[in-house]
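Quiz preparation item.
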């Protein structure tokens, strides 16, 4: 009985030891020894999110799909990755070797991405707090800022042109309904037949000219939309890649400079050589994307001038002809710019398409 009590006391002591260790784990302490949570910088958080989104697609990996405390989905069971059997005469199967190779490959990719993300995050924070240097191309950055400002102004033009189209379409529909009403009253009011008839013809003519003008405005809106949301957006995507490459280049440059300031033993020299290779790789990537951005900005400017020259001339001539009541000039403007109006009911699908 005494021995049983000794066992219980021993078990109780071990349990207390484990619980005391668990109670002292994971106390968040910042760099000043304070347990309070540090404030967040919203702008820095957005930049860090942009750095993180360039990582590998974890949905395609089968190592870990969630963080601490997540579900077990996407985790490779340790039993599925087996090394060589300890029993003599047995060898790993082809499937086991393939699974092991894929896991190692995914792990290496995750390791490289984590290291790259760490370096870029460190460089980004250093730049934000004025502790690190960054590569600056003043001329190119000025052109990029001009493009972003131009895109914002063109988006305003596009929004207002769409609003004009919607309002003018409503007016044309109202004129069409008013013309039909005048025509009906002309048949039912003999004493005012001529007056209702004149107004009905006028509204029908205005409606016809309005539909012609709508065709010109719709063509104008479509062209501006293509310029803003496709051509300019494509250039801005290349600029975003260039900015990410610039951040990576500066991160590896700072890493190489830091290593060069340290001791020159055998281990450090090997790390310097590796850092020099990574620095050259990211330098070449940065210069290549910089060249791509310069070329795209040049072609974008030429295309913008060409497109806007045509569209502004179309918009001016169509609006002027409509409000001058010059139907012939309005139709000639559409022919000049090869704009074909859709006949009424052209947007309605055929009975075969509805099946």
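Solution:
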């Amino acid at each position: 009985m005494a021995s049983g009590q000794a066992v219980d006391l021993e078990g109780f002591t071990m349990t207390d030891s484990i619980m005391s260790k668990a109670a002292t784990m994971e106390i968040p302490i910042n760099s000043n020894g304070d347990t309070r949570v540090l404030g967040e910088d919203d702008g820095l958080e957005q930049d860090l999110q942009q750095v993180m989104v360039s990582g590998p697609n974890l949905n395609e990996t089968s190592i870990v799909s969630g963080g601490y405390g997540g579900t077990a989905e996407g985790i490779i069971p340790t039993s599925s990755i087996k090394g060589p059997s300890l029993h003599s005469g047995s060898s790993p199967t082809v499937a086991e070797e393939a699974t092991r190779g894929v896991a190692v490959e995914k792990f290496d990719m995750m390791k490289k991405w984590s290291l790259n993300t760490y370096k870029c995050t460190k460089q980004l924070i250093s730049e934000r707090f004025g502790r690190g240097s960054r590569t600056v191309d003043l001329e190119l950055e000025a052109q990029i800022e001009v493009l972003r400002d131009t895109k914002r102004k063109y988006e305003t033009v596009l929004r207002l042109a769409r609003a004009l189209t919607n309002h003018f379409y409503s007016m044309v529909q109202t004129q069409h309904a008013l013309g039909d009403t005048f025509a009906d009253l002309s048949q039912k009011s003999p004493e005012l037949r001529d007056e209702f008839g004149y107004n009905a013809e006028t509204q029908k003519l205005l409606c016809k000219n309005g539909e012609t003008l709508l065709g010109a405005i719709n063509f104008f809106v479509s062209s501006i939309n293509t310029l803003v949301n496709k051509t300019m957006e494509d250039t801005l995507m290349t600029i975003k890649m260039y900015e990410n490459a610039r951040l990576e280049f500066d991160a590896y440059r700072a890493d190489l400079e830091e290593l060069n300031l340290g001791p020159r033993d055998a281990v450090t020299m090997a790390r310097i050589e590796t850092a020099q290779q990574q620095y050259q790789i990211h330098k070449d990537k940065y210069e290549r994307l910089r060249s791509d951005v310069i070329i795209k900005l040049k072609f974008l400017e030429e295309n913008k001038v060409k497109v806007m020259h045509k569209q502004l001339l179309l918009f001016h001539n169509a609006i002027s002809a409509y409000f001058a009541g010059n139907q012939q000039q309005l139709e000639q403007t559409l022919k000049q710019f090869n704009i074909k109006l859709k006949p009424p009911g052209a947007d309605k699908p055929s009975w075969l398409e509805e099946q």
